[in-house]
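User: For my dataset I need records formatted as: sequence, then structure tokens, nothing else. Please produce one.
Assistant:
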Amino acid sequence: TSERYLEICAKRCEPFKNVTVQRLGERYTDLSKCPGPFSRVLCVSVVQYYKQVAEISDLVRSARAIVRSGARMLVADLPRRRNIGGKLFDALCTMGTAIREGYAGTILKDTAGVFRDSPYRTAARQTPILQFSPADIAEIIRVDRMDATVISTSLSAVANRLSLLIRF
């Protein structure tokens, strides 16, 4: 729903002719206007900004209408529900990986944006970040009868995030 981040995404994806960046607006879980059918749907670092966990089910139901049989959907980079100690542990793991893989400067720069008055911080104040436990995700899978797997390996620069791989 952020125009600024849509512009950034569109610019970064410009070289890829098979990638479409589209503003979904207020009905952000409704993918029915997307021009499918798709064989892959990626939803990375997005659903934590949803208003409630149940909206993930709405998103997946909507995706079912625009995918081919056998398609896959990855809902990636879900923040774990953590206490303050767990959050500190995650931050240290993230920084350790960043140092080991050579992108610590980028992580520090991005982290600074969380603490100063930035577009991200403004948005974060308006919409609390959803956090998930493996049990939350298992419940979504069970209720919606999904053919899905919880992936605990981090797929982003942020350590200890969860992801959900759904098979249609």
